[in-house]
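To whoever picks this up:

The parser on our side crashed when reading a file containing two proteins. I've narrowed it down to the boundary between the first structure block and the second sequence. Both blocks are reproduced below exactly, byte for byte. First block:
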Amino acid sequence: MRHLIPAVLTALAFSALLISCKKNDNAGPQGPADLRDSVVLAGLTLPWEILWGPDNHIWFTERGGRISRFNPATGDRTTLFNVPDVVSQGEGGLMGMVLHPSFSSQPYVYIVYNYTNAGQYREKIVRYTYGNNTLQAPLNLIENIPAANVHNGSRLVIVGDKLFASTGDANNTALAQNVSSPAGKILRLNLDGTIPSDNPVSGNPYWSLGHRNPQGLVYARNMLYSTEHGPSSDDEVNIIEKGRNYGWPDVAGFCDSPAEQTFCNAQNVMQPLREWTPTIAPSGLDYYTNDAIPQWKNSLLFTTLKNTRLYQLELSDDGRSITNVNEFYNNTWGRLRDICIATTGEVYLCTSNGSNDRIVQISKK
C-alpha cells in the first residue's frame, strides 16, 4: 500500500502542520537544540513500536495487529503482516518489536503481543521469519505471561545474543515481587527462546524484578536503561542490573519513606536515576549518538503520553547520572508513544491519539 502525505492529511490538518513546522515557539522549553519537525506518515491507528531497520525503512507495529515498513525518503508504505491471534483489549494488543542484529543473514522479527488462552488474557513473545514482504514460520519463545487491560510493559531489545523484554505487573501488584511469575519483570532469553544459564535463577527468564509498567528499553554505554510508569506519582528512568529489585509495589520512586527505606535495605533495591511527580507517563526510549543534532549527542531521549512531550536526558561521562533535562514539543503532537533514530541522525516519533496517528520526523534546522 502506498501512502503519500497529501493523500492522508486533510486540508485542515495539513494547514496545522505547515504552521507547526515554521517554528516551535509554542513547543515548551527548547533547551539548546534548534529543530525542524514534519509529518512523514499519517492515518495510523495506535502505533506502538517504531524502529529503524537495516533497509533504511521504519518498521512499525499498530496495536490492532498490523506490522508495516515505511520508506521516509519516498513515502512508500508496505503492510507486511497482520498477526492473526492478537487481541487488542484496553491498552493491550500488538506492542513491541525488534529485528535480529544480523538481519541480512538471519531475517528474524521478534514481537510481543496480547492474546487469549483458555479464556485468560495473556502475553507472549514470538519470532517470525521475514521474506518476500511478509512474515512466516512463527516460533513461540515464551507464552502465558500474565496480561491485563493495563500494565503490560512490552518493549524488546537485543543485546549481543540475548533478548531482553519488559513486562508489566498486569494490574496485579503482587506479581512484581513474585520470582515465579514473569510479570513485573525485565526478562532475558536467548534468541531462540531458551533461558540463559547465567540468569539470576536457573531455568527462570527473569533478569530484574519489582517493575510496575516499564515501556521503554534501550542498551547504551554498556548499560540497559528503562522508563517506567509509576502509580499517581514517581514515574522513573532506571539502569537495569542483573538480579536487582526495583521495589514495586513496596517502593515507588526513591527510597524516601521509612517503610521504603526498610524494604530497600532488605531487598537491595536499585533506585532510579530520576523520578517525576506528577507523573508524565514515559514510554519509548532511545539513545542519541549522532552528530546531526549535536545538542542531543550522548543523551537519552524518551517520549511521554500524559504530558505529551519529548524529553532529553543529558548523561554524565559514566552514564550513571543525569546532568541536565530538556523538554520539547509540549502539546504539539498529543500523546507520544515511541521514538527511533535513523543512521543519518534524524529522529522519528509516533503519536498515540487513537485516530489519524502520525510519524513525525525531527531534524536540525
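<<boundary where parser fails>>
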Amino acid sequence: MQHHKNFIGGEWAAGTSDVPNINPSNMLDVIGHYDHADASQVERAIAAAAQAAPSWAVSNPQSRADALDRVGSEILARKEELGELLAREEGKTRPEGIGEVARAGAIFKFYAQECLRLRGDKLASVRPGIDVEVTREPVGVVGIIAPWNFPIAIPAWKIAPALAFGNSVVFKPAELVPASAWALAEIIGRAGLPSGVFNLVMGRGAVVGQALLDDPRVDAISFTGSTATGAKVAQAAIGRMAKVQIEMGGKNPLVVLDDADLDVAVHCALQGAFFSTGQRCTASSRLIVGKGIHSRFVAALTEKLAALRVDDALKAGTDIGPVVDQLQLDQDIDYIRIGREEGARLAVGGQLVKRDTPGFYLTPALFTDCSNEMRISREEIFGPVACVIPADSYEHALDLANDTPFGLSSGICTQSLKHATHYKRHAQAGMVMVNTPTAGVDYHVPFGGRKGSSYGSREQGSYAAEFFTTVKTSYCAA
C-alpha cells in the first residue's frame, strides 16, 4: 500500500503518522495511506512559503500564467482517472466526480489568464503636478483550509487565484479526502513553481489548521467548512489581524409558486436537494411550496425520489452515492428521527440500505407537513434530507425563504416575470437562482453568501482579487 507524503519546500516529506483513506462505497477498500504532519512540519511549510513569497510576488506574470495553464491542462487530460479517484474517496457518483475534476481544470485555466488581467488605475490628483496610481499586490503567505465535500474543486478555486496573484500557499485538505488533494498537489509540484511557493500539509485541524491560524507569518486564511469551525477561524485570524475569508453553511430555500412549471420545479428540487448525496452547502434543503401546487409537487417529487438508485459511486446507473462516513450518516439519521419527533411526515426515503459492498448507504428523505420553526427546517443537515414547507402566497413564501440564519443560495420556480424580478432583489442570499437548482454555480463568477453563510470577500472569478491582493495607492510628483 502506497504511503503518500506531504509536500514541503519543493520536496516530499514523510509525516509523523499515517491514516488509511477508506472508500465510503466499500469500507473494505483502502485507497491509500496518507501522512499526517505534526506542528513542526507545518512550521517548516510556513517557513518555506515565507521564504519563497517575496520573489514570487514580483515574478513575471507570464511565468505564473504558464505554470497554472500546465496544471489546468493536466487536470483536464486526466479528468476520467481523477474523477474516479474522487468518487472512490468522497462518494459522489463517477459522473459527478469527473464533472468536478473538469471544473477544477477550468478554474486553473481561467486564473492562468487572470495573471495577465490584474488591473490598476491612474487617477488625476486634486493637487497640481502629482500623479496617482492604484495597484494591487499579493497579500503574502496564504493558508488554505478546504472541506471534504468538493475535494478538488474548492481547493482549486482557492489555490489557483492565490498563486495567480503572486501569493505563496500552505494547503491543508480535509482529513476525509486526502487522495484528491494529494493528486492535485502532485500536479502542481511538477508545474514549474519555485520551491516553497506551494506546500501541502495533511493532518488534523487541531494540529495543522491551528498552526496556520497561530503563525504570524501566515498573512491570510481562506477557509471553507462548518459554521462552528468558521467562527473559531474568524476569531483566531482577526485576533492577530490576519486577512480572513470564510465560507460556511447554508439552509437554502427553493420557492415553488403555484404558477411554476411542475417538471421544472421537480427537476430543480431533485437536483438541488439530493444529488451529490445532498452534501453541498448550496443544497436546497427547504422546499417552500405554494398550496395550489403543493399536492402535485409532492406526489411528483416523491415518485422521482423513489426511483433513484442509491449504490456504489463507481457503478454505472447509480444516481446517488453513499454518505461520506459514519459520523455524517449518524447525523443524517439523527435528524430524520428529530423530524419525526417534531411532527413532520416522512413521505419517502430515510432508510439505511445494503448493497453488494458495505457502505454508508441512505435513501434520500423527503419530509412534508413541515413548519419553518422545526429544527429540520432551520439547522443544516448536510445530507440527502429535505423538508416541504407550505406557503399561502408569494409574499408568505418570500418571508419564509428569508427567515433563516443563513444566506448562501436562494431559488424560485415561477413563470411570473414580476415575481422572479422581485425575488432576485429581495431574497437575502449571496446567490439567487430562477428556474434552476440552488446548487451548481459557474467557475468564473463570484461565489459567497450573507448572514451566517459567509464572512469576507467573495471567492471565484475576478472577484477573488479582493481577497488575494491588497491595494496600494502611490503618489508621485512630476
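After patching the parser it read the second block fine. The longest strand covers residues 26-36. The CA atoms of residues 349 and 365 lie 4 Å apart.
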